[in-house]
Amino acid sequence: MTGQQRPHPAEGPPPDRPRPYPPHATPHTPLRPLWCCRACGRPWPCAHARLLLKAEYADNPVGLSIYLCGLLYEATRDLYRLNPDDGPSPRDLFARFVAWGLYRRPALPDADLPEPGR
Ligand SMILES: [Zn+2]
Prior knowledge:
This is Flavin reductase. The chain is mostly helical and 118 residues long. The protein is built from three helices and two strands; from the N terminus they run ββααα.
């Protein structure tokens, strides 16, 4: 330990997406610091939240990835504060918050894919 404090990153984005649908319904947004859905109680993002986020960010998959990465950061901080000795693994948190999103680079460019039947 150096005794020196490292700089603290700024807060992540507010977890205010997806917007409620229909508009008067309870939104499928996370309840902090537990990161369960405020509408259905499942771990956030629940299936309903994922569907709504995919629809809301259909034209902006990079924006969805940035939003989800920001919430991954916030959730990691909250969940490890709540349970510092036995929190979820980084791999599990990444799969839960980010890996399901729309933005993925293809494994191979289409031109490099083998032709069918070869
Ligand atoms: Zn939900």
